[in-house]
Amino acid sequence: MSGPGDIGAMLAGWLSYGSFFLVFATAFAIVTLGLNLQWGHTGLFNVGVAGFVAMGAYTSALLTTPDTPERLGGLGLPVAVGMLAAMATSGLLGLLVGLLTLRMRDDYLAITTFGIAVVVQLVANNATKLTGGPFGVQFIPKPFQGWLGTGTDWTLAYLALSVALLVLAYVALQRLTSGPWGRVLRAIREDEQAAESLGKRAYAFRLQSFVIGSMLMGLGGAVYAHFVGYIAPEDFLPILTFQIWTMLIVGGSGNPRGAILGAYVVWAVWALSGGMLRGLVPQDEQARAAALQVVLIGVLIAVVLVLRPRGLIGERHAAPPRP
């Protein structure tokens, strides 16, 4: 029989793993909120999410890491400054992309954002003097670590910080999208010409939505970087964009609560399936079997679209006016 010590150790292990899992899911939830603003509220098809996340992660990492002679950056600034700068640079990238593409057809935006993500990943992989190249950026500071160490206490503290940032982003978006600004975005999504006929500058509103969504993606990247403490170009491959889109579709496009729920649900499926594969598949076949995770997520999307076409918590449509 298990003694009290064994039970306590087991509970501590579950607490450590659960908090570790929740930090990742929360970082992805912040990114998914940004995509939900772009696509769910405005209809902007961004397939380069990974590029904006990478921009935020690298910006915060380069500004906050200690001085390193092997590469540029390493300014040792506070983590809060790094996160704000991550939002600024990702928003600036979104502004540049929006200025170039939002006046054109929607497919140009998809092509451009995908190209931007590839370019960012290639720069991160080859600009060794700036990003560390394939070796990445190490020694990214972790807030509270000087007080709490590296154990479960620190993970719980960082989880509280990431949840606070998620709540702040959610409340801010709710205030924006529940008012006139949000109603204009939804009008543009449904019928841009009709919105313009009412005197609304659709291009300006689309640009604002795209920039704010990009800023949230950068913030999510910074939250990820400061939790892991190390980032490399392989962390921001196109599969990340696929994961974020899956989270939004499963949770419910157009509903911020659905975007958050989808992030936690899909990351749970991804993490659990990865653990099962590592336990069931021989070591020399695990790289090939990892593709089964993508297949499983594809099946999940198909099931959700059949059973709940609008996602787990779909957008609420306004009731028709009474005669």
Global morphology: globular
Structural class: mainly alpha
Largest beta sheet, briefly?
none
Radius of gyration over C-alpha positions, nearest whole angstrom: 21 Å
Number of strands: 0
Give the rounded overall mean pLDDT.
Answer: 89
- N-to-C CA distance: 70 Å
Ranges where pLDDT stays below 50 over 5 or more residues in a row are 318-323
Number of distinct helices: 14
**Portion in beta strands:** under 5%
SSE string, helices as H and strands as E? HHHHHHHHHHHHHH
Residue share in helix: over 70%
Salient structural properties:
single chain, 323 residues, mainly alpha, 0% strand, globular, disordered C terminus
Quick summary:
This protein is mainly alpha-helical and 323 residues long. The chain contains 14 helices and no strands.
How is the secondary structure organized here?
Elements: H1 4-41, H2 49-64, H3 79-101, H4 106-126, H5 128-131, H6 145-148, H7 152-177, H8 180-190, H9 192-197, H10 202-228, H11 238-251, H12 256-280, H13 286-289, H14 291-307
Helix pairs in contact: 1-7, 1-10, 1-11, 1-12, 2-3, 2-4, 2-10, 3-10, 8-10, 11-12, 11-14, 12-14
Describe this structure in words.
With 323 residues, the protein is mostly helical. The chain has a domain at 19-236. 73% of the residues lie in helices and 0% in strands. The protein has helices at 4-41, 49-64, 79-101, 106-126, 128-131, 145-148, 152-177, 180-190, 192-197, 202-228, 238-251, 256-280, 286-289, 291-307. Helix 1 runs parallel beside helix 7 (152-177) and helix 1 (4-41) packs across helix 11. The longest helix has 38 residues, at 4-41. The protein is globular. The N and C termini lie far apart (70 Å).
